[in-house]
Amino acid sequence: MNRQPILVTGPARSGKSSWAERLAHESGRRVVYLATAREDPNDPEWQARIAAHRRRRPVYWQTLCEPVELAAAIRSAGEVCLLVDSLGSWVANLLALDDVAWSEQVDALLAVLAQPLADPLILVAEECGWGVIPPYPSGRLFRDRLGELIQRIGPFCAAVWLVTGGYALDLRRLGVPLA
């Protein structure tokens, strides 16, 4: 596996997490799954989704939860294949930040990604905004921040996978980068 991050992106329920898990398994390294979602014991449906993700992963994979300090968590991961799932949850966790604080978080993450990595890093991100513009400000803010984040991360990645319709496409190999 390359020493640059790998980005796996796609719409909801597209298989992007499963594809990222496959890539992590194929790395041959010990895998740490870094979950960015906040657990909510008052939301049984959300807890069921988290449990389904856990059941799908091998029991010997370690799971860490870090909903906010993503850059620091990546820096301190150690000698493992780190699978971050997902950037969308991370963005959602930080929606209350003003533009300056948000930019600082993004800059910290990009600074980590700009450094040569000693170990494999796989980032999962949701694609949104392929349809209706959200009718409320927080939805538009989420869509805009996540879309811009994915665009800024892509150039740092050895591969950018789009998972949709049951297929994984390597956009770095098949696509043309924007200026």
Automatic annotation (TrEMBL):
It catalyses: adenosylcob(III)inamide + GTP = adenosylcob(III)inamide phosphate + GDP + H(+); adenosylcob(III)inamide + ATP = adenosylcob(III)inamide phosphate + ADP + H(+); adenosylcob(III)inamide phosphate + GTP + H(+) = adenosylcob(III)inamide-GDP + diphosphate. GO terms for molecular function: adenosylcobinamide kinase activity; ATP binding; cobinamide phosphate guanylyltransferase activity; GTP binding. Its EC number is 2.7.1.156, 2.7.7.62. Signal peptide: none annotated. Pfam families: CobU (PF02283). NCBIfam families: PRK05800.1. Catalyzes ATP-dependent phosphorylation of adenosylcobinamide and addition of GMP to adenosylcobinamide phosphate. This is Bifunctional adenosylcobalamin biosynthesis protein. It comes from Caldichromatium japonicum. The gene is cobU.
